[in-house]
Structures are given as structure tokens and as C-alpha cells.
Write a structure and sequence with these properties.
- By secondary structure, this protein is an alpha+beta fold.
- Among the domains are: 52-81 and 185-206, OB fold (Dihydrolipoamide Acetyltransferase, E2P) (Beta Barrel), CATH 2.40.50.100; 82-182.
- It is built from 6 helices and 13 strands.
- The strands form 2 sheets. The chain has a 6-stranded antiparallel beta barrel with strand order 1-8-12-10-9-13.
- Helix 2 (82-132) packs antiparallel against helix 3 (137-183).
- The longest helix has 51 residues, at 82-132.
- The two termini are 77 Å apart.
């Protein structure tokens, strides 16, 4: 029985679609995992650094924008320090005042010492004259009391000098403390990286610990993956790994295992299928070498998904499709 031509065309079209779909599936499906290796998908992450103010205050300037690259020590934010600067001026004035008081105390001590010398001399003369009967004993007693009073005045002047020195030290310490606090009103980058978020604007008033910027340390980039106990138990710290980013599947990035969790946990939602997420897995960090991250600093981005392969058997050879393949480096600007 002859089939109508219209149905034949539909069947042929369906066969072509099915064949094309199968061919595409064969081409695009992940290669089989070779013996001695484990595979898991994950997301590239970078170490985050929060730039926050130590003291409450008003943001004066934010000198970087989201996406800017920064270097260690670069000034990122300045806070309004007018009040603290006024306190520093007050402390420096207190230092000057204490130094003047110290000079006065020195002059007073010199005066009291001169009075003590005179009292000593008068007492000695009175004693000599009294021994010869030329001076009554009452006069000798008066000179003795005057000498004791002059000695007490000298002791008091010495104490005043000690107080002046302590006042100077306290004023200097307060000024130094304020100077140190002023340094915290200028926020710098603790290390190089890239600005991910700008969380505050000039003029905003923040409390102590208020976050202003978030940086990504692009020399510490890793992918977190999850593997079952049977595979995680074979992994050693420092084991070789490969990362294939979804955004550039033609490249294969070398990496090493830098962390293996000691306890199992449920995997997050972005991992594979629901059945995979319902299993207890071990969290593992696969870190990209710092020299590669520095070489491709402008290309590195956190949040990119990909697949990581970890070598479980130390001598297992890497298959051809997992050989390291990095993009060409851009020539340095002239």
C-alpha cells in the first residue's frame, strides 16, 4: 500500500531531526570519566575582602568604582575627620601647655634649692654662735624650722616636676593615639584585587564597621565542588585537577586540591540534579595557581560555572581532552 507523499515527507523530517539531535547529543555530551579520575561541576569563587570603617563617621570620598582594579596600599576611601583633627590640635596644645608648666616647675625648683642653701647656711651660723653663747637657743630652733621648711619646699618642687613630666607624657600619648586613629580614616586596599561592590556613597553616615566596598582577591580563585565519600576519600591535598569553564569550554585550566572537608554535607542547589543534591557529599576546593591568575588577571571572573576533574590515582595519565590548554596571553602595552 502506497503511503501518501505528505506523510512520507513528515516522517523523513522527523527522522532527520532525530538523527541531528542524536548527533548533537553525541558531540556535546561530556566525555566518559576515565578511570582514576572524578568529575563534578561548580562555580569559580574568589576570596572576598570587605572594606569597612573602624569608627562611625561620614564618608568623604570614594575613589574607586565597581570593576576597578586596585593595588595593595592604594587609597580607596577617605572619611570626614574634621572632629578628630580638632581633637589632635587640642592634644598638641595640651602638650605645649604641659611643657610650659614643666619649665615653670624647673624654675620653682631652682628657687627652692636656693632658699634651702640659704637656710642651711643660716642654720650653721646660728649653731656656731649658739655654741659660743652669742645666739639664744630659740633663734637656733627658728633657723632649724626654716631649714626644714626649705627642704620640704624643694621636695614639693621635685614632685611638681614629676607631675609636669607625667602631664607631658599623657598629652603626647593622646596626640599619638589620635594620629593613629586618623590613619584609620583613610581606607586602603590590604592587597591587590578588583572592586566587586560599592556599598556606600560620599556623604553617607556609617556606624563602626560599616561596609563601603567589597574587593575580590583575584590571586586566590578556586572552584568549590562536591564529591561522594568513595571519591573524596582518595583525594590528597595537592592532588592535580583540571577546570573547564562553561563560558570557554575549549580551554583547560590546571589546578590543585587545596581543601577537603572533614565532614559530609548536603550539596547546594546549583549542583547537577535533584538526586545529586539529596546525597551527602564532601566539599572540596580546587585552586588555580597564582601565577596563572596573575597572567590572566583581566580575564579572571568570579561566578563562572564549569566542570572540575580531579585525579584520584597519582600516576593516572590525563586524557587528551584534559591536557592543559590556556588562551594566548595578550601582549604587554608599550
Amino acid at each position: 500500500m502506497k503511503m501518501p507523499s505528505g506523510k512520507l515527507i513528515i516522517l523523513l523530517a522527523l527522522a532527520l531531526v532525530a538523527g541531528g539531535g542524536y548527533a548533537a547529543w553525541i558531540k556535546l555530551k561530556p566525555p566518559e570519566i576515565p578511570t582514576g579520575f572524578a568529575r563534578s561541576n561548580g562555580r569559580l569563587e574568589a576570596e572576598r575582602i570587605d572594606i569597612a570603617t573602624k569608627f562611625p563617621g561620614r564618608v568623604k570620598e570614594v575613589l574607586v568604582a565597581e570593576g576597578d582594579s586596585v593595588t595593595a596600599g592604594q587609597v580607596l576611601v577617605t572619611m570626614d575627620a574634621a572632629e578628630l583633627e580638632a581633637q589632635l590640635s587640642e592634644a598638641q596644645a595640651a602638650i605645649h601647655q604641659s611643657e610650659q608648666q614643666f619649665q615653670q616647675a624647673l624654675a620653682l625648683l631652682a628657687q627652692r634649692q636656693s632658699e634651702l642653701i640659704l637656710a642651711d647656711q643660716q642654720l650653721e651660723r646660728s649653731k656656731a654662735l649658739g655654741a659660743q653663747g652669742y645666739t639664744p637657743l630659740e633663734k637656733v630652733d627658728e633657723r632649724q624650722a626654716a631649714q626644714l621648711t626649705a627642704q620640704a619646699a624643694v621636695n614639693s618642687a621635685n614632685a611638681g616636676i614629676g607631675q609636669s613630666k607625667a602631664a607631658i607624657a599623657a598629652a603626647v600619648a593622646r596626640a599619638e593615639r589620635i594620629k593613629e586613629n586618623l590613619k584609620d580614616y583613610v581606607l586602603t586596599a590590604p592587597r591587590g584585587g578588583r572592586v566587586q561592590y560599592r556599598l556606600a556613597q560620599p556623604g553617607e553616615v556609617l556606624g563602626a564597621g560599616g561596609k563601603i566596598l567589597t574587593l575580590l582577591d583575584l590571586t586566590d580563585v578556586y572552584m568549590t565542588i562536591f564529591l561522594p565519600a568513595g571519591e573524596a576519600g582518595q583525594i590528597e591535598l595537592g592532588s592535580e585537577a583540571r577546570i573547564i569553564p562553561d563560558a570557554a569550554p575549549q580551554y583547560v585550566v590546571p589546578a590543585t586540591v587545596s581543601f577537603v572537608a572533614s565532614e559530609a554535607q548536603f550539596t547546594p542547589k546549583y549542583v547537577e540534579t535533584k538526586s545529586e543534591r539529596e546525597k551527602l557529599m564532601f566539599r572540596i576546593k580546587v585552586k588555580i595557581p597564582e601565577e596563572i591568575l596573575k597572567r590572566y588577571a583581566q580575564r579572571v571572573k568570579a561566578g563562572i560555572t564549569g566542570v572540575a576533574y580531579v585525579r584520584l590515582v597519582r600516576d593516572a595519565p590525563w586524557p587528551a581532552y584534559l591536557q592543559v590548554n590556556l588562551p594566548p596571553t595578550e601582549p604587554a602595552p608599550k
